[in-house]
Task: inverse folding
């Protein structure tokens, strides 16, 4: 359900050599301890960043939603 009174916050300006890329991800969350990086186990965010680092890409993943441990998204 969308909220008509909700407004997306303004994006911070990026340096000329940076860009934003939207990626839609679906996954089986049973092997992860949630989406956000954390100390108590492997997260989806950490796995994505490590895979991109292996491809020599320096990225920071920012999720637009939230899932808890063991949840499938």
Result:
């Amino acid at each position: 359900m969308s909220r008509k009174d909700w407004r997306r916050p303004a994006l911070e300006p990026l340096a000329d050599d940076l860009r934003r890329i939207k990626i839609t991800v679906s996954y089986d969350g049973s092997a992860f301890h949630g989406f956000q990086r954390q100390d108590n186990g492997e997260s989806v965010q950490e796995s994505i960043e490590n895979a991109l680092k292996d491809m020599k890409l320096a990225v920071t993943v920012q999720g637009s939603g939230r899932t808890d441990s063991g949840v499938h998204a």
